[in-house]
Amino acid sequence: MGTMVRIVLYAPNEATATRAARAAFERVAALDRTLSDYRPDSELSRLSARAGLGPVPTSHDLLRLLETAQRVAEGTDGAFDVTVGPLSRLWREASRTREAPSPRALSAAKAHVGYRYLRLEKRAGTVALDRPGMRLDVGGIGKGFAADEALKVLAAHGVRRALIAASGDIVVGDPPPERSGWTISLDVPQRKRRSRILLRNAAVSTSGDAEQFVVIDDVRYSHIVDPRSGLGLTPSRQATVVAPSGTASDSLATAVCVLGADRGLGLVERDPHAAALVVTRVGEDFEVRSSTRWPTLAGH
Question: What CATH number is given to the structural domain containing 217?
């Protein structure tokens, strides 16, 4: 999935720990073979190659993930959209060449983007991409989903005290022995020391352009693309979301980045199980805002 996955776990013995960790990593590897849009032989890539050709039989994993993605897309009016693939490809190339996509290329790519052109038939187990040239990109939700699935595998092996970290997505189960939760450090601009939150049986995801961006003609573009405008995000923004699952926190963090602080925090406030912290660069300064349910931060 283009990142390193780390597992921290507590088990009664080394043999249990080894079996559980191996099975969890194997589950992540299998999901990479399903969900990666970098691998031409992945199920996701093969589905994209059938765009415009009608319903395609789809695995349970991919169908479940796309169902969740569609719910987020509908709830954000398309600010989150896994059909963003044609635009993602343009901006990956722009990051390599340091040249912005032309208006013509952006217009052509946007014609193949739109979550309403993605149709799921749960009973039949099929997915259809209505327009030729469509391409799926689940980068804004897939790592959180994989971390959730890895945690389930560990639990099936009797390991419930565990943490799964996949880049900016962290999913935790029961806390370590004699602890009330897992201490998660957050790098929040403007704060002299790292802030910390305490989590158990929950997830936290951070999306933004702190590490992945490109500067073209003095404009800083995030690797996160707004499916509606077709542009990499400006201004610089970082969103951290706490939610019950990695699938939820990952997708919501991406959506909040695209929507911005006002609309993004409004979206999170409507979910009684989620909370968010949004950091936006304003000139040389940073604006830090949070939802009302944001966990108490320590280490300010």
Answer: 3.10.520.10
Give the separation between CA 58 and CA 109, rounded to whole angstroms: 25
Contact (CB, 8 A) for 170 and 161: no
Determine the Cα–Cα distance for residues 179 and 158; give it in Å rounded to an integer. Answer: 19
Quickly list DSSP for 69-114.
Answer: HHHHHHHTTTSS-GGGHHHHHHHHHHHHHT-PPPHHHHHHHHTT--
Q: Are 163 and 7 a contacting pair, CB within 8 Å?
A: yes
Domain assignment present for 84: no
Q: Quick check: helix, strand or coil at residue 153?
A: helix
Q: Are 227 and 84 a contacting pair, CB within 8 Å?
A: yes
Neighbours of 226 (CB within 10 A): 19
**Backbone torsions φ then ψ of 244, nearest 5 degrees:** -65, -25
**Percentage of the chain exceeding pLDDT 90:** 83
234 domain residue, yes or no: yes
Model pLDDT for residues 109-137, shown as the tens digit of each residue? 999 999 999 999 999 999 999 999 999 99
Distances from the Cα of 101 to the Cαs of 86, 98, 156, 189, 233, in angstroms? 12, 10, 47, 30, 14
- 181: containing domain: 175-290
158 half-sphere exposure, CB direction, 13 A CA radius? 9
Q: Are 118 and 83 in contact (CB under 8 A)?
A: yes
207 within some domain = yes
Interior/surface letters 139-148, b for 16+ CB within 10 angstroms, e for the rest? bbbbbbbbbb
Which residues does 33 contact at the CB level (< 8 Å), separation at least 6?
39, 41, 42, 43
* pLDDT above 70: percentage of residues in the chain: 96
Q: Could you tell me which of 285, 292, 204, 297 has the C-alpha nearest to residue 245?
A: 204
> What is the domain count for the chain?
1
Return the sign of the alpha-carbon dihedral for residues 21, 151, 37, 52.
positive
Average confidence (pLDDT) over 20-29 = 98
Given a cut of 50, is residue 202 above it in pLDDT? yes
